[in-house]
């Protein structure tokens, strides 16, 4: 994956910087997680301070346009960004693993019928 930053915009009131980039990839469009890691590495910013707002693939090419925001600290990012976007960045956890643990705990704490 090749990442080319095309434009940077400072946002002093939000203590952030907007990035507009173009990526070239070989297989499938990179995930948000992969893009966050690539942007963090290229800009020398911690990955938890990077939010990818938009990934727009270019039809017929193995390219995509990316819009991202780099924040000065993580607390500011969580305060400013909306919850659905933050949820997208956390990724999908395994729902089966989450459901398995509460059921196991319920079985252990449930009283036996003979008592």
Describe the structure.
The chain has helices at residues 32-43, 74-80, 83-90, 95-109; strands at 2-11, 16-24, 50-57, 63-71. It has 115 residues and is α+β, with helices and mostly antiparallel strands. The chain has one domain (2-109): Alpha-Beta Plaits (2-Layer Sandwich). The protein has a 4-stranded antiparallel β-sheet. A hairpin with a 5-residue loop joins strand 3 (50-57) and strand 4 (63-71). The longest helix has 15 residues, at 95-109. The radius of gyration is 20 Å and the shape is globular. The mean pLDDT is 82.
Q: Please identify the top-level CATH class.
A: Alpha Beta
Main sheet: which strands, in order across?
Answer: 1-2-4-3
Largest sheet: 4 strands, antiparallel
For this structure, the CATH topology is Alpha-Beta Plaits
Helix-strand string: EEHEEHHH
- SS content category: alpha+beta
The proportion of residues forming helix, as a percent range, comes to: 25-40%
Q: What's the CATH H-level homologous superfamily?
A: RRM (RNA recognition motif) domain
Q: What is the correct CATH architecture? A: 2-Layer Sandwich
Total beta-strand segments: 4
Strand content: 25-35%
Short description:
Helix content is 37%, strand content 31%. By secondary structure, it is of the alpha+beta class.
Helix/strand layout:
Blueprint: E1 2-11, E2 16-24, H1 32-43, E3 50-57, E4 63-71, H2 74-80, H3 83-90, H4 95-109
Antiparallel strand pairs: 1-2, 2-4, 3-4
Which features does this protein show?
115 residues; alpha+beta; Alpha-Beta Plaits; four-stranded antiparallel β-sheet; globular
């Amino acid at each position: 994956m090749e990442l080319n930053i095309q434009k940077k915009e400072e946002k002093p009131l939000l203590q952030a910087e907007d990035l507009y980039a173009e990526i070239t990839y070989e297989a499938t469009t990179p995930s948000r997680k992969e893009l966050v890691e690539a942007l963090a590495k290229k800009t020398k910013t911690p990955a938890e301070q990077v939010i990818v707002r938009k990934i727009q693939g270019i039809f017929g090419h193995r390219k995509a346009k990316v819009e991202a925001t780099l924040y000065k600290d993580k607390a500011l990012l969580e305060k400013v960004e909306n919850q659905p976007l933050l949820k997208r960045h956390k990724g999908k956890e395994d729902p089966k693993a989450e459901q398995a643990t509460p059921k196991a705990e319920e079985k252990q704490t449930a009283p036996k019928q003979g008592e």
